[in-house]
Amino acid sequence: MMSVSTSHSYLRVAEQVRAALVEGRAVVALESTVIAHGLPRPANLEVARAMEDAVRAEGAVPATVALLDGQIVVGLNDAEIERLGSEEQVLKASRRDLAPALARRATAATTVAGTLACAALAGIRVFATGGIGGVHRGAVSSFDVSADLIELSRAPVLTVCAGAKAILDLPLTLEYLETHGVPVVGFQTDELPAFYSRASGLRTPHRADTAQEVAATAYAQWASGVGGGLLVTCPIPEAFALPSDAIEKAITTALREAVEQGVHGPATTPFLLARVAELTGGESVAANRALLLNNAMWAGRFASELSKIRTITE
Ligand code: PSU
Ligand code: MN
Q1: For 298-309, b where at least 16 C-beta lie within 10 A, e where not — what string?
Q2: How does pLDDT run across 89-117, given as a tens digit for each residue?
Q3: Residues of the chain scoring pLDDT < 70
Q4: What CATH number did the domain enclosing 295 receive?
Q5: Does residue 38 have its Cβ closer than 6 Å to ligand 1?
Q6: How many domains does the chain divide into?
Q7: 3-state class of 157 per DSSP?
Q8: Which domain holds residue 157?
């Protein structure tokens, strides 16, 4: 039975993260699926570090999250990030995978849903990612709806993203978030951004134009007792946005190949991401990097504003 963990230290929070949380200073959680499964090597490691730097530049403490040898680690050190980005066969952990992975002492990258659950356990209120999972195209028959959407409604965390990739059904994704009561706030825009492109043609139900407004909205959600999470969508910086027709062609091809090859379940999103990246060439990686850094920067600023409100009012 040596391989089964029954220890109670399932959560390890890095010292600098713990200190910041205790003192009410700004902290931003970062996910690790983008490091292990979302970006090609070696860009993944460079981007993971640059995101942490972008958070620090706004006066917040970054906390990259993953499962290492059967422990939830909140605040990976540099060697741990390197390990996650270079080891083969790192698992992809959504919420449902956390407990089984902990019991087996496994190592896994956490998705948006997995990271949100872990951030909530540690008491972190702000989280930056690239794009969230959502309702897949064809979900009417496949039932493939990312657990990210449910966890966004459950964890008391503000998630910063660049919208969702058009590999998903974006109108249904918005419907689903409405059903589960997640405020979707367009940051300096009225439109839901579509990851590589700034526009989707879909309106966000809410809009904020300053970091103070975003922080006040998150604070109201929690201090009022309404609870749950919020989603803030930041469009990709203009200079890096890609034309949506080229992306759409790649997505159509990738979706067809997924069906032909019988790809389904948790393998679907990594498959589609990898194929779209291949079909669009290196340009998509540069765009991905730019939006991740932009989200990390804004998340740092939102977290800093939030810690100011909490210091004054609590
Ligand atoms: N979308 C992206 N990049 C990503 C992901 C989604 O544009 O890296 C990852 C995130 O970690 C997200 C996960 O939480 O994929 C969603 O997977 P699924 O569809 O299996 O829930
Ligand atoms: Mn799925």
Answers
A1: bbbbbbbbbbeb
A2: 899 999 999 999 999 999 999 999 999 99
A3: 1-8
A4: 3.40.1790.10
A5: yes
A6: 1
A7: coil
A8: 11-313
Instruction: Say how far apart CA 39 and CA 219 lie, in whole Å.
Output: 33
Q: Is the Cβ–Cβ distance between 195 and 162 less than 8 Å?
A: yes
Cβ 108 vs Cβ 93: under 8 Å:
yes
Q: Which two tokens stand for residue 150?
A: 């449910």
Place of tokens 């990246």: 277
Amino acid of residue 5: S
Backbone Cα Rg of the chain: 18
Which of 217, 114, 218 shows the shortest CA–CA distance to 156? 218
pLDDT digits (tens, 9 = 90+) for 248-288: 999 999 999 999 999 999 999 989 988 998 898 878 889 99
**Residue 264 covered by a domain:** yes
SS (H, E, C) 182-199: CCEEEECCCECCECCECC
In a domain, 1, yes or no: no
Domain-located, residue 105: yes
Nearest to 295 by CA among 164, 170, 201: 164
| CB 193 less than 6 A from any atom of ligand 1 | no
For residue 292, the CA-to-ligand 1 centroid distance in Å is 13
Cβ of 235 below 6 Å from ligand 1: no
Does 165 qualify as catalytic in the annotation?
A: yes
Per the residue annotation, which of 52, 92, 165, 305 is the catalytic one? 165
Other Cβ atoms within 10 Å of 10 Cβ, number: 16
Q: Which residues pair with 159 in a beta bridge?
A: 127, 231
Under DSSP, the state recorded for 208 is E
Cα–Cα distance, 272 to 280 (Å, whole number):
12
Torsion angles phi and psi, residue 68, rounded to 5? -125, 120
Query: Which ligand places an atom closest to the C-alpha of 96?
Result: 1
Residue 256 maps to a domain = yes
Determine if the pTM surpasses 0.90. Answer: yes
Give φ, ψ of 162 to 5 degrees. Answer: -105, 35
